[in-house]
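Sequence design from tokenized structure. All designs in this work follow the same two-part layout: the structure record, then the generated sequence. An example of the structure record is given first.
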């Protein structure tokens, strides 16, 4: 299961649309490692002039790795995180999360990061089973 959904939030979802803030709070509580990682790269980006900020530190364990994979593999979770933090997220391997400024999506840097070549160059033997 990706998220721990309270009975109240589930009831609200059964009744109609959910506000982003409610969903984001559920993500924050359910996937704390993923939340911390995305929060950190988004904060690093906002406090710099860099085109992007990224996390190259592998998760400490399988639970954390699973949280990151679930957060970034879900369109709903990923897009809500992007809206919340005002960034475009990019993902390589099982841990390399990058936050780009939305305007950078058309940049060469972004295109290199999400390219097949970028993916291949970011491989290493210790990450094969991630």
């Amino acid at each position: 299961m990706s998220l721990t959904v309270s009975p109240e939030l589930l009831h609200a979802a059964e009744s109609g649309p959910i506000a982003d803030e409610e969903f984001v709070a559920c993500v924050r509580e359910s996937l704390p490692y993923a939340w911390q990682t995305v929060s950190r790269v988004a904060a690093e980006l906002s406090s710099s002039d860099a085109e992007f900020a990224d996390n190259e530190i592998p998760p400490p364990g399988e639970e954390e790795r699973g949280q990151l994979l679930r957060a970034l593999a879900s369109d709903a979770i990923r897009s809500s995180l992007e809206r919340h933090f005002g960034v475009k997220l990019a993902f390589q391997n099982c841990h390399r999360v990058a936050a780009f400024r939305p305007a950078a999506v058309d940049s060469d840097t972004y295109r290199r990061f999400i390219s097949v070549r970028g993916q291949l160059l970011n491989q290493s033997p210790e990450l094969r089973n991630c």
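The mean pLDDT is 88. We note this feature because it recurs in several other targets discussed in the main text.
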